[in-house]
Every structure is written in C-alpha cells, then in structure tokens.
Design goal:
Elements (H helix, E strand, L loop, with lengths): L1 H6 L4 E6 L2 E4 L2 H11 L4 E4 L12 E6 L1 H9 L3 E5 L9 H40 L4 H20 L9 H6 L4 E2 L13 E2 L12 E2 L2 H6 L9 H15 L3 E4 L7 E4 L10 E6 L8 H14 L2 E9 L4 E9 L1 E3 L3 E5 H4 L4 H12 L8 E6 L5 H14 L4 E9 L2 H10 L4 E5 L11 E8 L7 H13 L17 E5 L2 E6 L3 H10 L2 H8 L6 E4 L5 H12 L7 E2 L20 H9 L4 E5 L6 E5 L2 E3 L1 H15 L9 E5 L5 H9 L2 E5 L3 H9 L5 E4 L3 E4 L7 H18 L5 H12 L1 E12 L1 H16 L7 E2 L2 E8 L2 E2 L6 E2 L4 E5 L4 E7 L6 E11 L9 H16 L1 H5 L6 E2 L1
Helix pairs in contact: 3-8, 11-12, 11-14, 16-22, 19-20, 19-22
Protein name: Pgm2p
Pfam families: PGM1_C_vert_fung, PGM_PMM_I, PGM_PMM_II, PGM_PMM_III, tRNA_int_endo, TSEN34_N
Organism: Malassezia vespertilionis
C-alpha cells in the first residue's frame, strides 16, 4: 500500500469488494470529506442507535456517483480487492515468526518492568507512611520473589505456528507495525502486488476500470443521468447522500450534514424530450408533503460527450396543504416571493381590494425582507388595512386568534413550522382564511396554479415601513397597524384558563416548572405567561429569545431536539417540563420520570377540561382525533357522553367541525393538540391546560405529579399502547396487491368474530369519511381491524407511483391490567405486531424483514 501511495501520491485508494466501493483509512476519509465535500456512509460495526452515521465506524462506503466524481477529478484510484493481493512468500513467513517472537519477548520484558516499577512505588509509599505491618510486607516480598523465580525458570515464549490461520485467510499475512510504544497487538495488513511490475490490479480512470470489467458505472442512461445531476449539485456547493429514506435519489444538504439538516430531495428523470406526466407531478408533490421537504425533479440531456442537467421543476412540500416551504435561497430568487404573495392575493375569493389582512411569523431568517415585500404588494393590490405583528413576530396560534378577533379577511404567516432556520435553511409562507384556520384545498390549489401562470405583480414602492414600533403607519393608500404580538393572545389565554388557581399552586415553591421555547416564536409569550402572569422565576423558562436560526438548533419539540430540556428535567428533578416548536403550534409534555405521548395528552386534557378550564364550564361540544391517532380519547368521549369524531389526517377536518360548533377538543399523533378557541394547533394552550390539571389535582391530593396523573388516567380508562411502522420504497404493484388481499379478507363474512392469535376481531373496514358539515367524502384512508379489547391495527398505503410506495402499519393495543401499564411499548405490542404481519403477509409481499422507520 505504501508503494501504491508513492506511485499515486495525490489519490485516495478506493477498495472495490463485490461491486461496492470502500475507503478504509481515516486520513483518506478526512481527505474525501474536507477537500471534496463527499459524505459517503460509515458502515463498520453496528450502531447502538440507528440515527446518524457518527455511531458507525470505518470503512466508509461511497455512493457510485461519489466514486465517479473522484475518478473524474483524478483524486482516486480503484483497487480490485479480489485480485490485488497474494499469499506471503516463505521468507516473509519466517520474518513474520521472528518478529512475533521478538514482539512477545519485548512485551514480556515490558510487563515485568512495569510490575517492578509498581512494586517499588508501593513499597516506597508504605515505608514513607510507616503504616504497614512489617510481617505482612515481608510475606508480600516473598510472594513476589517466588513469582520472579518461576518466570526466570520458564522457557522463552515462542509463538505457535499460525499456518492454520493463514490457511483460513490465504491472502493475508501479518507485518510489524511502526509504533514506538510498548509492543502489543498489531493490525492486520496485506501485501499488495508491485506497482512497478505492471501486475497491480489498480485503475486510475473509469475507462481502464470498465475495460477490466471491474467498475462499469455509469453504464446505463439512468446511471449517467444520476452522475450528471450529482456533479451539477456538487459543483454548486451542496453535500449529498442517498435519498432512499425520503423517496428520492439524493437528499441534499447546504453544508456538512454533521452541522446542517437536509433541505430537499432530488429525483432524477431520464426523459428530457418528453413532458412530465401528471402522475409524476402529483407524486412529487405528495412526496414533498409526506416527508415535509422540498422536492426537486431534474433531467439530464445525455449526449455522446457531455451530459447537461436541467432543473425541470421544484415541487415544494405543503404543510396542511397551505404552507409553501422551501430553502431561503429559493425565496431569495428574483420575483419568487413577489409571485407567491401575488398568487395568494389573487386567490382570495372576494379579491384583495378593500380587505383586511394580517402578516407575521416565527421570526426565522428572511422574515424581515418578506414582511416588507408583503407590505408593498398588499398596497399595490388595494388592501385596505394590514395588521402586522411587532417586528414581524406572531405565533401561528396568536395569528389565528387575531384573525378571528379582528374579523380579518385572512392572514399571511411566515413560517416553515418546525424546520430549521437560517440563511442556509428553510422559509415558508402560509395563508389562513377568515376563520383563522389553514386555507382549504380549493384555495391552495388555486394559489399553486396561479404561481405557474402569473407574469406580473402589483406593488407600491417606497422605503421600508418601521415595524419595530407599535402604532398606525401608512404605505400608499393602505393603513398598517403594528400590534403587540403577545398581549392579545396572552389576554385570551387568561380568559380561557384560571390563572389565579395556577399561580396559587405554583406559588408554594414545591412544584418546579421549565418551558423551552427552542429559540422559536413562543419565547416572548412564555415569558409573559410564566413570569409576568404566573409569577415564576426566570429559571422557569429557557431559550426564549427568538433567533433567525433558532440558535442553530432544530425547533421541533421531541425527546431528541429538546434534549437540553429532557436533561434538565432528569438532572434537576423538575416537576414539569414542556416545549413548543418554531411557530408555536406543537407541544411536548414531560414530568419527573414521565413522558406524555400526544395521544394520551389530548385524552387527559379532554377528561379534565370541564372541571379545571373555565372556557369549558358550559360543556364540551365534542371530541375528535385523526384516524391513526391512539383511541385513548375515544374512551373519554364515551365515559362523558361527548359526541366523538374520527377524521382523516389534516387540521382542516377539525376546523369544519369547530365552525359548526360540534367540536371542542382534538389532537393528532404528531404532537398537535388544540381546541375550538382558535382554528390551529396550539402548543402553549396545551401546556397551560396541563398546568391547570396539575393545579387541580394537587388541590385534591398534594404532591400529585405528571406521572401520577398518567397513572390515574390509566387506572380509570386503561392504557392504549401505540406505535407506527413505516415500510418505505416498496414495490407499488406488490403493495397494492397486498392491500387488495387485505381488503378481500376483511370483507369475508367470517372475518368478523374470528381470532387472530389471542385477539378477537370486532370490526374491519376500509376507512372512509363523510364530512358531516359540507358532505365531502374522503375514501380509502386506510384498512383497519379493531378487536374486542379495544386494540387495533391499521394499514395505509401512500406515495404510490414511479418512486415506489410506503406501507404504514399502525399498531395499538388496549389493556386494563394495572400490572401492564408500565410495560415497554414495543414489548407490549409484540404479539399484536406479529398478528398484523401474519395477516398481511407483508414480508412475503414486500421482501422486507423489518420496517424502515419505527415511531
């Protein structure tokens, strides 16, 4: 290997084994990453937690496109592992035996020397302190002398002939390492054929490797297209890795993935002379929505010489079908933001002229210039009044409240939800209608169509408007009212909840609270609530300053990204911990020794609401959850005789029921909880609701903890264990056939009442939803099987098309046995998961032995 490096001093050795390219040495891995911005995939050993590559070790496995890029740059050499090495000669074997004998002897001498030095140090210490019994010391010296005599009498250690080892590994031999430390274990190395004799199986060009049939990538048109796209994006400064997990060919990062989150996925098309099919566009949009990432469709124009890349379309993922999310660089493109804002205004049913609109957001990077752009375009389109949050700050729940309170036409919200922020991260623009909720699909579809056809936008130019100071301003003929971003919303919460009860409970000092705003928009709201209104000390909140990049963190309230809060609750033994996301519509609830999953959280809030939340003193109209969410809230509705709704995923389905005054409290599996006080999820509302519950519970029984509230709920209603298994990128045809087979089984007359292991089938169907308000029908939302003990399994198929399909398996088991309440979720669900996989024959249909993702 040293000779090879001398012959190719500036090239990284890439070792080929079974068609896979590996880099074995750490210095080469560092060179590839630092100089060439290539990530590869560390694939050595097994990770304890399958989250990031840093849990793995050498070797580094390279993508084929990375290998091609390095070879074309003259930065690598390919080594054919199967033929590059040969057995050691007899002279080499004899030299090896001699080195081994010398190594063992040196190791033995070094060990004896170390023991003698240790003995001397101990003896000196004992004599110095004069604390040891002289007789005991004499006995110890006698034992050591006896050991030394035995060692001296022992024959010199000669290593056993390792011929048997060499026979098992015929192309391997050992060589002496170069370390100057005490000899010890030496790494296994191999002798490579000489470079000078021309017989070495190493190749420095793609052509030579292809002629030797060692490396033929890229050979097909698809492979050439992938390489062309990869090189084009790489040349623009992006880092990339495989995009299989997100349904694309590559996943793209603005910088090193150790510091940045991925921004978008890329799918490579190979038909530049043909228009995009409708299903490709639809599948791309759905994929972007499902994985909440922008999705880039690209094509490569392949010629006999150069391969040219064309970016055909960027399909942005939609949050609740109303939020256009993309990287900041996309919104910074000339006319991009103006085009989108103009499309929003043109899509308003009654038009923008004379309307009252609201604008604000989570304060992420690019918010300030976006607000000024919106001001100019709204003025140019005849908007009568624009309500702006001070400094452009408004949480999504606060914006929903202000829209409803001021009877505005709608609102333009600047947020990318829980996505990272910063110049190299994400930005988003969202439109909410006059009810304060996300725009329906009829509006968002119109916005999307307009963005493709608009060739103009109207604006009133002028200097930037001061949005740092509250008060009324004017731009052109439009009034601008800059409002306190926090006051109206906090005042509203004070009307909803009994702040006096909560303040009295927290004032005794026995119950500690910590809220983490993750440097998102809820920071000022949290300070106003917890410090000003509830009288807590400053240590009750953390990360409350909204920052354009969220402090370099990921503003997503879960056990991973809110790790500092999780650690604080555990280390400081805090009674209560909570967090919210970037725009304030999600929440996480913790307690000492307790994590509250979202399905349990909404059920517990619903159970206590009438007793502890003044807003609901007049009664609960109804409860609802998204179809995949755990059925814990169902039992609460039944016990209280509340009307109950099970709806498809999407907050707009809740909004219709709320507008019809048939729904009060609802939630979904993805940390979203809310009520009819607004038309959005509301993270702080859920947090204060939990404090209300704890205040009331401690009034009844002092010392009640979050864990106690959970246990009391389980004791009253039983526990719903819940988990979701995702099988991504499976064959669309086989997935559809599996679903058809399941549908046929569920429709047989004998299926109801049959036994699946220990579970008796009570109900089975393909979930469909007829909106009781507008009559709209949503079909094929998932096949479900319910059992007589309250457990259920759900199969949903999504992402069908040219990029494969994703099968989602939801598993939920109900138990009312107190001895099982504290069981591990996966252990508790294991029998039911087994029955679900057996019923579906999922492994046979997909060839998958395990899910891609478990949540």
């Amino acid at each position: 290997m040293d000779e090879l490096r001398a012959f190719y001093p500036d090239r990284v050795p890439i070792h080929l084994s079974n068609g896979i390219a590996y880099v074995w040495e750490s210095r080469d891995v560092e060179f590839v990453r630092a100089k060439h911005n290539l990530c590869g995939l560390l694939s050595g050993t097994l990770p304890l937690i399958p989250q990031q590559n840093v849990f793995l070790g050498l070797p580094l496995r390279l993508l084929p496109e990375e290998v091609v890029l390095l070879l074309r740059r003259g930065a690598a050499i390919l080594i054919d592992e199967a033929h590059a090495y040969f057995p050691p000669t007899e002279a080499e074997r004899e030299a090896f035996f001699e080195r081994e004998a010398q190594r063992i002897l040196a190791q033995k001498e070094a060990t004896i020397q170390q023991q003698e030095e240790h003995r001397k140090r101990v003896e000196d210490a004992m004599h110095g302190e004069n604390t040891v019994d002289p007789k005991a010391l004499e006995r110890r010296r006698a034992r050591q002398a006896s050991k030394q005599e035995k060692n001296a009498a022992a024959p010199s250690a000669v290593p056993q002939d390792p011929a048997s080892v060499l026979e098992r590994m015929p192309y391997v031999h050992y060589t002496q390492g170069s370390s100057k430390e005490v000899p010890g274990y030496r790494p296994l190395t191999r002798t490579m054929q000489s470079v000078k004799d021309g017989k070495v199986n190493a190749y420095d060009t793609l052509k030579d490797a292809a002629l030797a049939e060692v490396w033929e990538y890229p050979k097909t048109a698809e492979q050439r297209a992938r390489c062309a796209v990869f090189e084009d994006l790489h040349g623009k400064g992006y880092f990339m890795s495989t995009g299989l997990r997100f349904g694309g060919d590559f996943v793209v990062y603005p910088g090193d993935p150790l510091r940045y989150h991925s921004h978008f996925t890329v799918t490579v098309l190979t038909t530049p002379d043909q228009p995009l099919a409708a299903f490709q566009i639809i599948a791309s949009g759905r994929l972007g929505t499902a994985v909440k990432k922008s999705h880039l469709l690209s094509q490569a124009y392949l010629t006999s010489t150069d391969d040219e890349v064309a970016w055909m379309q960027r399909t942005e993922g939609l949050d609740d079908a109303s939020n256009a999310v993309a990287s900041v660089k996309v919104f910074e493109q000339e006319h991009y933001t103006e085009n989108f804002v103009q499309a929003i205004l043109d899509a308003i049913p009654d038009g923008p002229k004379g309307s009252t609109l609201l604008v604000g957001g989570d304060g992420r990077y690019f918010s300030e210039p976006a607000v000024q752009t919106i001001i100019r375009i709204c003025a140019g389109n005849g908007v009568n009044k624009l309500i702006v949050g001070q400094n452009g700050i408004l949480s999504t729940p606060a914006a929903s409240h202000v829209i409803r309170q001021r009877k505005a036409t709608g609102g333009i919200l600047l947020t990318a939800s829980h996505n990272p922020g910063g110049p190299d991260a994400d930005f988003g623009i969202k439109y909410n209608t006059k009810n304060g909720g996300p725009a329906p699909e009829s509006v968002t579809d119109k916005i999307f169509e307009l963005t493709k056809s608009l060739d103009h936008y109207f604006l009133v130019d002028g200097p930037d408007v001061d949005i740092a100071a509250q008060g009324t301003k004017r731009h052109g003929e439009m009034d601008i009212e800059v409002i306190d971003s926090v006051k109206d919303y906090v005042d509203y919460l004070a009307q909803i909840f009994d702040f006096d009860m909560i303040r009295s409970f927290l004032g005794n000092g026995d119950f500690s609270v910590r809220f983490d705003a993750l440097h998102g928009v809820t920071g000022p709201y949290a300070e106003a609530i917890f410090l000003d209104r509830l009288g807590l000390g400053k240590n009750a909140v953390q990360n409350t300053l909204p920052l354009p990049d969220f402090g370099g963190g990921h503003p997503d309230p879960n056990l991973t990204y809110a790790k500092s809060l999780v650690n604080a609750v555990e280390k400081e033994q805090l009674s209560f911990g909570a967090a919210s996301d970037g725009d304030g519509d999600r929440n996480m609830i913790l307690g000492k020794g307790a994590f509250v999953n979202p399905s349990d959280s909404v059920a517990i809030i619903a159970d206590w609401a009438e007793r502890v939340i003044p807003y609901f003193k007049g009664g609960i109209r109804g409860l609802a959850r998204s179809m995949p969410t755990s059925g814990a809230i169902d039992r609460v509705a039944k016990a209280h005789n509340y009307e109950f709704f099970e709806v498809p995923t999407g907050w707009k389905f809740f909004g219709n029921l709320m507008d019809a005054e048939r729904l009060s409290i609802c939630g979904e599996e993805s940390f979203g909880t809310g009520s009819d006080h607004i038309r959005e999820k509301d993270g702080l509302w859920a947090v204060v609701a939990w404090l209300s519950i704890l205040a009331a519970a401690n009034k009844e029984k002092p010392g009640t903890s979050v864990h106690d509230v959970l246990q009391a709920h389980y004791n009253k209603y039983g526990r719903n264990f819940f988990s979701r298994y995702d099988y991504e990128e499976v064959s669309s045809d086989n997935a559809a056939k599996m679903m058809d087979a399941l549908r046929s089984k569920s429709e047989t007359p004998t299926f109801i009442g049959s036994q699946l292991g220990a579970f008796k089938v009570a109900e089975a169907a393909d979930f469909s939803y007829v909106d009781p308000i507008d009559g709209s029908v949503s079909k094929h939302q998932g096949l479900y099987v319910c059992f007589d003990d309250g457990s259920r399994i759900i199969f949903r198929l999504s992402g069908t098309g040219s990029m494969g399909a994703t099968i989602r398996l939801y598993v939920e088991k109900y138990t009312h046995d107190p001895s099982e309440y504290n069981a591990d979720v996966q252990v508790a669900l294991k029998p039911l998961i087994h029955e679900a996989l057996t019923l579906s024959a999922l492994q046979q249909w997909t060839g998958r032995n395990a899910p891609t993702v478990i949540t």
